[in-house]
Amino acid sequence: MTGYAIVLASGELEKLTAASTIASIAAASDVPVDVFVTMNALTAFEHETVETGAFQTGPVGQAMLESEETEIPLFTEQFRDAKALGPLSLYACTMAMDLMGRTLDDYVDVFDDTLGVAGFLSHAEDKQVVFI
Amino acid sequence: MSEHKHTPDVTVDARGAGCPGPLMDLIGKVKTADEGTVIELQTTDAGSKDDVPEWLDKAGHELLDIVDQGDYWSIYVRKA
User: Fold this and answer.
1) Sequence-distant (≥ 6) Cβ neighbours of residue A100 within 8 angstroms
2) CB-based contact (8 Å) between A66 and chain B?
3) Do A29 and B27 touch (CB under 8 A)?
4) Contact flag B27-A85 (C-beta cutoff 8 Å)
């Protein structure tokens, strides 16, 4: 195995954060990680969603956003920081982008490129796939 | 003043940060430090006590000591 291919499909803050946490530590430890962001997860990366904090959350997500004692960086910041430390790439799903009428400029600046399903499968070929 | 025997070359203050903040801060520092550098990671995240040694073991760096400072922990690390 030469790293992880993470499919990030959920727009729930808890799942986005679990993905960014695992991806960050792996990449910072020099384990290659490709993240394929698709479905509702992609909406969570839009400028407007990030700026307003309008994420889907359950109780843990609420606690993350509100906690004054423990600072948890937003998943977008975790991804951005980790990219500076190791082999981490993020790809936006072209199908979800087309459906929603979006371009890469509509998302926070963490994506390396757009990718279709064949492209993802090619990236995932030598990696362990994690579906979130 | 604490009385333990390790004198850090660098101190990383990650107090107040939750997982994975302290570990990420440490990894960032370890990556740029010279071999043999002693780093003190200050953390209030209880999970760091188990998770940092786990990472050090895997990454091949040395855990020198974990000191309970009352309201935070100091984890002393030597870069291999």
Assistant:
1) A42, A43
2) no
3) yes
4) yes
- The CATH class given to the A4-131 domain equals alpha beta
- Residue B31, domain CATH: 3.30.110.40
Phi, psi for residue B39 in degrees, rounded to 5: -115, 135
pLDDT (tens digit, 0 to 9) for every residue of chain A, 132 residues total?
Answer: 699 999 999 999 999 999 999 999 999 999 999 999 999 999 999 999 999 999 999 999 999 999 888 889 999 999 999 999 999 999 999 999 999 999 999 999 999 999 999 999 999 999 999 999
**Boundaries of domain holding B27:** 10-78
Residue contact B17–A70, C-beta within 8 A: yes
| B4 Cβ contact list (under 8 Å, min separation 6) | B65, B67, B74, B76
pTM: 0.91
Judged by CB atoms closer than 8 Å, whether chains meet at A81 and B16 is answered as: no
Residue A73, classified by CB atoms within 10 Å of its CB into exposed (0-12), middle (13-18) or buried (19+), is buried
Interface of B with A (CB under 8 A): 16-21, 23-24, 27-28, 31, 44-45, 55, 58-59
Residue B1 lies in a domain: no
Q: Does residue B73 lie within any of the structural domains?
A: yes
Looking at the DSSP bridge assignments, the partners of residue A86 are none
Which among B16, B17, B24 is the nearest to A28, CB-wise? Answer: B24
Contact B51, B18 (CB under 8 A): no
For residue A71, give the nearest of B18, B28, B59 by CB distance: B18
